[in-house]
């Protein structure tokens, strides 16, 4: 019954969500957001790292999953998002967690059934799948969707006879 930590990285707000997966059932454990603080880039990235480290130390997840960066219209925004994502991955790696990565389309497909779903559809399905009446924020809902995606992907691979889920590289499972 693995405990999965999902991360929705952001340069201003990073969402996190924890779900426990057993068979085809998923149970909500916790979720929230890290509101990035600091004056300099280094301080902001350090805040993401330390805040997520505290979440990891509190909940002791078994696995983690992070949403991949997609190209924004503004390259500067994509760069900032990538840096926030890097700080999150460093926190996960520092605690020895295996980390899987998923594109926004893969997450939507796993949770909603279609890769072009809008945020409201994802939030609705996260609430339905986890039997929640409310979720604290859109960022927390997105992070829970990442965790659910990883749980669903792992279950599918297990049914197909895969022994472990070790992550993706170049669009293929290794």
From TrEMBL:
A Pfam family hit: RuvC
Location (main, coarse): cytoplasm
Its EC number(s): 3.1.21.10
UniProt GO cellular component terms: cytoplasm; Holliday junction resolvase complex
A GO biological-process term: DNA repair
Protein keywords: Cytoplasm, DNA damage, DNA recombination, DNA repair, DNA-binding, Endonuclease, Hydrolase, Magnesium, Metal-binding, Nuclease
One annotated GO molecular function: DNA binding
Reactions performed catalytically: Endonucleolytic cleavage at a junction such as a reciprocal single-stranded crossover between two homologous DNA duplexes (Holliday junction)
Cofactor binding, per record: Binds 2 Mg(2+) ion per subunit.
Residues annotated as binding Mg(2+) 2: 67
Entry annotation: catalytic residues: 8, 67, 139
Subcellular location: Cytoplasm
Residues noted as binding Mg(2+) 1 in the record, renumbered to the chain: 8, 139
Cofactor(s), by name: Mg(2+)
Enzyme class: hydrolase
Protein role: The RuvA-RuvB-RuvC complex processes Holliday junction (HJ) DNA during genetic recombination and DNA repair. Endonuclease that resolves HJ intermediates. Cleaves cruciform DNA by making single-stranded nicks across the HJ at symmetrical positions within the homologous arms, yielding a 5'-phosphate and a 3'-hydroxyl group; requires a central core of homology in the junction. The consensus cleavage sequence is 5'-(A/T)TT(C/G)-3'. Cleavage occurs on the 3'-side of the TT dinucleotide at the point of strand exchange.
Quaternary state and interactors: Homodimer which binds Holliday junction (HJ) DNA. The HJ becomes 2-fold symmetrical on binding to RuvC with unstacked arms; it has a different conformation from HJ DNA in complex with RuvA. In the full resolvosome a probable DNA-RuvA(4)-RuvB(12)-RuvC(2) complex forms which resolves the HJ.
UniProt-listed PANTHER family: CROSSOVER JUNCTION ENDODEOXYRIBONUCLEASE RUVC (PTHR30194)
Family: Belongs to the RuvC family.
The protein's name in its UniProt record: Crossover junction endodeoxyribonuclease RuvC
Organism: Thioalbus denitrificans
């Amino acid at each position: 019954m693995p405990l999965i930590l999902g991360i929705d990285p952001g340069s201003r707000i990073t969402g996190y969500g924890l779900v426990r997966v057993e068979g085809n059932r998923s149970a909500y454990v916790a979720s929230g957001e890290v509101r990035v603080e600091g004056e300099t880039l280094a301080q902001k990235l350090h805040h993401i790292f330390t805040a997520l480290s505290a979440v990891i130390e509190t909940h002791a997840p078994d696995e983690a999953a992070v949403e991949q960066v997609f190209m924004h219209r503004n390259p500067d925004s994509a760069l900032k998002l990538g840096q926030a994502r890097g700080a999150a991955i460093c926190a996960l790696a520092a605690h020895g967690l295996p980390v899987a990565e998923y594109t926004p389309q893969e997450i939507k497909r796993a949770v909603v059934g279609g890769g072009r779903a809008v945020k409201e559809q994802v939030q609705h399905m996260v609430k339905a799948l986890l039997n929640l009446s409310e979720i604290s924020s859109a960022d927390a809902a997105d992070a829970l969707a990442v965790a659910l995606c990883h749980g669903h992907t792992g279950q599918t691979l297990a049914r197909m006879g895969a022994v472990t889920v070790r992550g993706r590289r170049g669009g293929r499972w290794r």
